[in-house]
Design a protein that fits this description.
It is built from two helices and seven strands; from the N terminus they run ααβββββββ. With 150 residues, the protein is α+β, with helices and mostly antiparallel strands. A five-stranded antiparallel beta sheet has the order 1-4-5-6-7, covered by helices on one side. A two-stranded antiparallel sheet has the order 2-3. β2 and β3 form a beta hairpin. It is rod-shaped. The model has no long low-confidence stretch (mean pLDDT 85).
Length: 150
């Protein structure tokens, strides 16, 4: 009758090697993780997640402001093309992702723009529904600036 060997041990030499390794300090022999090791890893992941979640609102604010500024630039370029073809600017108002069909412009969802024509010049003011900031671009400067006066 043979000796019952532990799982994974195929002969007596393996069993003798296993017995010698058990005497080595720190050797676990199972290849698994201890409860302490798992708790440390879970704690580390929780800390990283809390850091990422705290930064999410700031990134979201940057994204909605970028959408509003991008739409302002695109509307301004569409107005400039219209001006080159017709010799005048078009006043329009777009709210929450609408379109200004006269110049062939569609705003992103949540973006509202108002274009006014004064003294032959153009001024477009825009904002995003999720942001408190307002942006402006005019035909005089051509640059997008923060605020409603440009």
């Amino acid at each position: 009758m043979g000796i019952a060997l532990p799982r994974g041990v195929t002969d007596i030499d393996d069993l003798n090697e296993l017995e010698r390794m058990r005497d080595i300090p720190g050797w676990k022999g199972t290849g698994g993780f201890t409860l302490i090791e798992l708790l440390v890893i879970v704690s580390f992941i929780a800390i990283l997640a809390s850091i990422a979640i705290n930064r999410y609102p700031a990134v979201r604010d940057l994204a909605v402001d970028a959408a509003a500024k991008s739409d302002l630039k695109n509307a301004f370029k569409a107005e400039e093309v219209y001006y080159a073809d017709h010799g005048e600017y078009v006043a329009f108002e777009v709210s929450d992702g609408g379109s200004a069909e006269e110049i062939g412009f569609n705003a992103s969802q949540g973006v509202s723009l108002t274009a006014t024509v004064e003294n032959g010049g153009l001024r477009i003011v825009g904002s995003h529904a999720s942001s408190s900031k307002t942006w402006c671009v005019s035909s005089e400067s051509g640059n997008v600036t923060e605020g409603s006066s440009c």
